[in-house]
């Protein structure tokens, strides 16, 4: 497992250089590896996922520990040596069930398998043994003396983000947010209510050996309590009775209040989580035009739509920041913009994103978001609703984008009064009328949404 884990981590790092073109998501690399090794037992599969996501979740703290025992700066170490030591350190710090001797010996063994020079093998051996002796009592930076470094190291976030949150949120709130990002998110699923009710699905899953609880907020959500087999092999999944989706995403979609018969334009459809939810809500009456620029994501959306047995969805592969290939006179009752963003609200679910993002990304995404709004707005029917959604917590991509759009489009306004008949939505509407969920406050992914109405 450790060899596969190091391989996945190394591939992700090579293909996801900060400032460069985005490479594959970590989840995709893990799933591909598991697919390539079908005979792995469930415990081995779980350990592989734990090692890979754990190392990237805690990379900042691991590197700090390695730096305390290494005579070379961490950023000067051979990439494979560094990843072997990260793997060792993660096991020593967070996996009590793995003996320290096993963690050390496996790293040395892997160094030999990869035919590292003898000097580097000796370095891995010496550094790993020092770590086994020093951990877990290695002191961390003092928050009173080095507040930014202390937050960055203790919670494993890049220093620019730690500094940003300390300034914007204050110390107490910044620590709570960063700590929440390191918690494992619940396994939330959305019930395909076009085929089955949540209560009935719970019974079906129970017969498949899966215990669930009702969602805490979403009326169509369930939480899986434990999972000891591949969920994608379950008959209920293959029959299209459910899909994975955080409750925050489920709630955000409800804001749009789609009604049977509506025509809906969705920009940034991705793999179809919100597309298929909208299709459920239309109950087979109405049409959705789902737009995305990625052929791979469009293909995934189509597979998901087919598995769920949902109709009324048309796919359009195009760059929605440019002029849309839609008849100029066409108008939609609802528009959903699931905007590309920094993803800083979903770091607990995608821990690797913290190491890809840079400060300049916030303004870069804001420009993309403004372009999507600008291109979609002319297709809004008077009296219709436009929903803007991100999975980031940062105002440059949220409130600032909305303020700029509303200044340049006076025929749009933040939707007044109750935004939905669903009582589940109300607790998440702030004083400014925006929908907001936070991992540290709600144990949900960090989502932002603004519902705009176009004047008649």
UniProtKB/TrEMBL annotation:
<dbReference type="InterPro" id="IPR049560">
    <property type="entry name" value="MeTrfase_RsmB-F_NOP2_cat"/>
</dbReference>
<dbReference type="InterPro" id="IPR018314">
    <property type="entry name" value="RsmB/NOL1/NOP2-like_CS"/>
</dbReference>
<keyword id="KW-0808">Transferase</keyword>
<comment type="similarity">
    <text>Belongs to the class I-like SAM-binding methyltransferase superfamily. RsmB/NOP family.</text>
</comment>
<keyword id="KW-0694">RNA-binding</keyword>
<feature type="domain" description="SAM-dependent MTase RsmB/NOP-type">
    <location>
        <begin position="177"/>
        <end position="455"/>
    </location>
</feature>
<dbReference type="InterPro" id="IPR054728">
    <property type="entry name" value="RsmB-like_ferredoxin"/>
</dbReference>
<dbReference type="Pfam" id="PF22458">
    <property type="entry name" value="RsmF-B_ferredox"/>
</dbReference>
<dbReference type="InterPro" id="IPR023267">
    <property type="entry name" value="RCMT"/>
</dbReference>
<dbReference type="GO" id="GO:0008649">
    <property type="term" value="F:rRNA methyltransferase activity"/>
</dbReference>
<dbReference type="Pfam" id="PF01189">
    <property type="entry name" value="Methyltr_RsmB-F"/>
</dbReference>
<keyword id="KW-0949">S-adenosyl-L-methionine</keyword>
<dbReference type="InterPro" id="IPR004573">
    <property type="entry name" value="rRNA_ssu_MeTfrase_B"/>
</dbReference>
<dbReference type="GO" id="GO:0006355">
    <property type="term" value="P:regulation of DNA-templated transcription"/>
</dbReference>
<dbReference type="Pfam" id="PF01029">
    <property type="entry name" value="NusB"/>
</dbReference>
<feature type="binding site">
    <location>
        <position position="292"/>
    </location>
    <ligand>
        <name>S-adenosyl-L-methionine</name>
    </ligand>
</feature>
<dbReference type="GO" id="GO:0003723">
    <property type="term" value="F:RNA binding"/>
</dbReference>
<dbReference type="InterPro" id="IPR035926">
    <property type="entry name" value="NusB-like_sf"/>
</dbReference>
<keyword id="KW-0963">Cytoplasm</keyword>
<keyword id="KW-0489">Methyltransferase</keyword>
<keyword id="KW-0698">rRNA processing</keyword>
<comment type="function">
    <text>Specifically methylates the cytosine at position 967 (m5C967) of 16S rRNA.</text>
</comment>
<feature type="binding site">
    <location>
        <position position="338"/>
    </location>
    <ligand>
        <name>S-adenosyl-L-methionine</name>
    </ligand>
</feature>
<dbReference type="GO" id="GO:0005737">
    <property type="term" value="C:cytoplasm"/>
</dbReference>
<dbReference type="InterPro" id="IPR029063">
    <property type="entry name" value="SAM-dependent_MTases_sf"/>
</dbReference>
<dbReference type="InterPro" id="IPR006027">
    <property type="entry name" value="NusB_RsmB_TIM44"/>
</dbReference>
<feature type="binding site">
    <location>
        <position position="319"/>
    </location>
    <ligand>
        <name>S-adenosyl-L-methionine</name>
    </ligand>
</feature>
<feature type="active site" description="Nucleophile">
    <location>
        <position position="391"/>
    </location>
</feature>
<protein>
    <recommendedName>
        <fullName>16S rRNA (cytosine(967)-C(5))-methyltransferase</fullName>
        <ecNumber>2.1.1.176</ecNumber>
    </recommendedName>
</protein>
<dbReference type="InterPro" id="IPR001678">
    <property type="entry name" value="MeTrfase_RsmB-F_NOP2_dom"/>
</dbReference>
